[in-house]
Amino acid sequence: MKDILVIGSGIVGICTGIELIERGHLVTLIDPNDPGSQTSYGNAGVITDSSLIIINNPQLLKSLFSLVFKKKTAFRYSKLFVILRFFWIIRFLLFSNQKHMEKAAKAYKDLQTLSLNSHKELIKKTHSKSNVLKPGWLKLFKTEESFKKHSSEIEILNKNNVEYTVLNTFEIAELVPELNVKFSKGILFKNSIRVNSPLELSKKYFEYFIKKKGTFINDKCHNLKYISSQWNVLTEKNKEYKFDEIVVSTGPWSKSFLSNLGYNIPLAWERGYHHHFSTKNKISIIPVIHDVEGGFVYSSIGNEIRITSGVELNFFEASPNENQIDEAAKKLSKILPLDKKLTPKAWLGSRPTIVDSMPMIGMASKHKQLWFNFGHNHIGLSTSAGSAKIIADLIEKKKMTINILPFCPSRFDFKIFK
Ligand SMILES: Cc1cc2nc3c(=O)[nH]c(=O)nc-3n(C[C@H](O)[C@H](O)[C@H](O)COP(=O)(O)OP(=O)(O)OC[C@H]3O[C@@H](n4cnc5c(N)ncnc54)[C@H](O)[C@@H]3O)c2cc1C
Hints:
Layout: E1 3-7, H1 11-22, E2 26-30, E3 46-47, H2 58-62, H3 64-69, E4 75-77, H4 79-84, H5 86-94, H6 98-125, E5 132-133, E6 137-141, H7 144-149, H8 151-159, E7 165-168, H9 169-175, E8 185-189, E9 193-195, H10 198-211, E10 215-217, E11 221-227, E12 230-235, E13 240-243, E14 245-248, H11 254-259, E15 267-279, E16 288-291, E17 296-301, E18 304-308, E19 311-313, H12 323-332, E20 338-341, E21 347-354, E22 360-363, E23 370-374, H13 380-395
Parallel strand pairs: 1-2, 1-14, 2-10, 4-19, 6-16, 14-23
Antiparallel strand pairs: 3-9, 5-9, 6-8, 7-8, 11-12, 12-13, 15-18, 15-19, 15-20, 15-21, 16-17, 17-18, 22-23
């Protein structure tokens, strides 16, 4: 039995805490914020085994010109960010090749399958069933042309045995009768599930962690020192603790947090917004819907619609700019009868993205008894429970059930651009 500290109580940290405690370790979570209240609070709620295509794929290079020079709802950027993080962006773009996309897809299929199954168990154990619906994920295409442009995604789904159904206009209208607009094609992922409230799910998982005798410290981890085979932890409230092992699950804060220990993590932030709207009529759409041409995602929760935006490439601390989400909402109001905006300010979260769009899950390269679990970008709700299993297997020196090399934290070591 080991005494383990998990830093950060987002969905990734909470799942890691549960997995470790269920294997008989003493586990403490530390966070200055409430569990699940940061990036994990406002996401679209999709848990899937089908998000295999990373953002920096070959299609990105083809559409680069229009992304940079035409204002798109799916993508916005800060010029200053692009200038100051130019090398990060070039490295990100260098990963937009077929070989990396295929490698990433295979690794993600294994991780997401492991994770989806693990979430299903956690949902049962934590009595979260009322927060979950199925099928959870639907992609809609207005035109045949845009569907055809996604043929490479279909190929990847087929290669990796993802279950899906292609829907025609009639089938889409039958599944979602509330839509005011006709869509030409849809891809329905029947195995995926959707969570009505990601915060509620985090809270239920956290309650389970506490019920299993986990400890929560409401404080910020300030400094870590490795002394005599143990980690000494100093917090912002000037408290000191000692642990055998540390897991860093600090999401978008991981770059700054680990710089103090001498790590230069190639991480940036794909920011995203959400708003809630009331509707003129009662609407109950089951899956979360991705409007592919529109570049936004929406779902209905009771009588409310939650809309989440695409990517804003910007600094973590930059002030919010609601233009992107407002534009998406304008487009959605032509599809659904939106009424009042219920969120006075848009919620803003920062997807933590490593330059190759793969999370870091595994052993830190410069320190003993230090483990990384962050960088889950667009899919951290989906991948959280599986990544927790990997970390626990690594700490216990167990045989891996999937190939974890693509997630190895030391994969950038000794490279020219480090
Ligand atoms: C608009 C949007 C939509 C999304 N939709 C989906 C979706 O449908 N499905 C999906 O799978 N994913 C989705 N995601 C991605 C997902 O939300 C993230 O990948 C995930 O929430 C990351 O979780 P995390 O635990 O790593 O980070 P966080 O939830 O941010 O948790 C990190 C925690 O670390 C804490 N912390 C930081 N520094 C310290 C410190 N020094 N000491 C102690 N604690 C510290 C923070 O307070 C925070 O609580 C979406 C993201 C966005 C923005």
